[in-house]
């Protein structure tokens, strides 16, 4: 069950605190609440099945658990009980040790009335959110930043280091947000309050298990079985659908659901897609048609003719009081609403497949540490990016991945202090932002003594770092704006544990990324998709979207009162948004100017909304200059497909603008 949660722990609490936490959830719907001494907690989506009372703790679950049956058995409970009731029994037996046993996408709150202990934990993979603010002995927590903003007495100032990192398209420290003092609880961590003392601590640490033995064919078969299980754990019949691109990862989900799961456990046979028929570099209609034809599926698709980015970004800003981290919202939201209108509640997509099944380049550093430089060079040649590049470029990559990669974390810190911030900090940031950017550097903190670098980097990339947190935050919020729940088959603790026990060199291939996944899906995924090496991107379409927004944004960005001038050199801002500057997301000698401009525009809107809360509404109400998406919908059914969802009356050719 998807809930929103908000709470305050305050030793000086008054009776008004209960109403305060209820009001913090106003954007999320009607809320239940309790106040017990210093603690007030509210949650949406109806009463909890474990309201507490007597010696029994209050237990609130946001999300879903994939191992409820196993948990009930461990706690000696009868099968078939509500998940929150099961959690009460598991907590009674294992205490805090309960959390490391939970699987799925979840946040769990436990208020132990007997010991006066509060525990709020989140899952191991960043799927469900929790944000915290600790100010002295007063602790605020909530499912989203917007909930905390309704609990604080005064809106926090921007965090300069986080803003600088966000503008530079660099990773934020995993516990930071754009608001000073509001912390993202990291994956595998919990908030604990005992005797009035609050602490954030790790309850779960990934462990690299023994390497799996077996032939490549045997390991591919085992990988197939684990992927099937991960998909099945996240499907609910009748209300689950797959968002399908033309790539390997989402097609794998569709193939597994269609060909491996019983109908009562599978996703629906209607898939949903975005297509770009006017942009050959971005469009995957041909691949999508191949998939639905071979798998016997139906597909509802939005064909986007043109769009800006800003209209979707402003909707996101108005809803979440944060800027988005992706460019597709303006035309994804109409598709999301169509999915919800079809009765779908849960969507699965293939995001994160590249990182889970792809190769870790830092295996090169491990080989160099072992004194095997020739093996390192041979390994790097077995990557699609370096298989046939000139020797000079190959050696440059070997230096970056092997030599620099093998250095201990402390060496990077020393080198950065010696060189100063000028080498790694974007030159267009002003001095204060440059210092904050440099001080918040976390790029090499994943290097742990005594652990293989290929593995610690993957743990950071997939589970505990800032990138998965921001990726999942955005995807979850985007789905919620359409009334949907997004689940992550590839963000699965057990699947992750299996993949990390595979010999890491099996992920290297001179032609294909994710070669073992491709082998494991032989006979399931159409070969047209399984054996395609090229991966589409949206860069050319995004370039057009940025250009469409410039008439309304260029005057704001070049104005003397532009808010981003507090973070960026004014002359750099003037030059970037000059009418003669070509803004493209393709890398040039000056960097990715299009992405830089997009980030600056998003940040300008967010900063202005801090001073003027109606800014997003005012911009959306403008009739001039705001580029809305232009699109049509189509519903395509493969010959012989038994698609259970038929198009609504306007689904064959609806047009939005």
- Low-pLDDT segments, ≥5 res: 645-655
Average pLDDT value?
Answer: 91
Oligomeric state = single chain
What class do helices, strands and sheet pairing give? alpha+beta
Based on Cα principal axes, name the global outline: globular
CATH topology of the largest domain: Rossmann fold
Strand content: 5-15%
Our measurement of the CA-to-CA distance between the termini, rounded to an integer number of angstroms, reads: 35 Å
Would you identify the CATH architecture of the largest domain? 3-Layer(aba) Sandwich
Number of helices: 25
What is the class of the largest domain in the CATH system?
Alpha Beta
**Biggest sheet layout:** 6 strands, antiparallel
**Percent helix among the residues?**
25-40%
Strands of the widest sheet, in order across it, are: 2-3-1-8-7-9
Task: Tally the beta strands.
Answer: 18
Number of domains: 3
Task: Please tell me how large the radius of gyration is.
Answer: 25 Å
In CATH terms, the superfamily of the largest domain is: HUPs
Topology:
Elements (H helix, E strand, L loop, with lengths): L4 E5 L7 H8 L6 E6 L2 E6 L13 E8 L2 H7 L8 H12 L9 E9 L4 E6 L8 E5 L2 E5 L2 H5 L10 H8 L15 E2 L4 E6 L2 E6 L13 H18 L6 E3 L5 H13 L9 E6 L9 H11 L2 E9 L3 H11 L8 H13 L4 E3 L4 H5 L5 H7 L3 H9 L9 H16 L2 H11 L11 H9 L13 H12 L1 H16 L3 E3 L5 H7 L15 H6 L6 H4 L8 H20 L11 H7 L16 H19 L3 H6 L9 E8 L17 E2 L1
Helix pairs in contact: 2-3, 5-16, 6-7, 6-19, 9-10, 9-24, 12-13, 12-14, 13-14, 17-18, 22-24
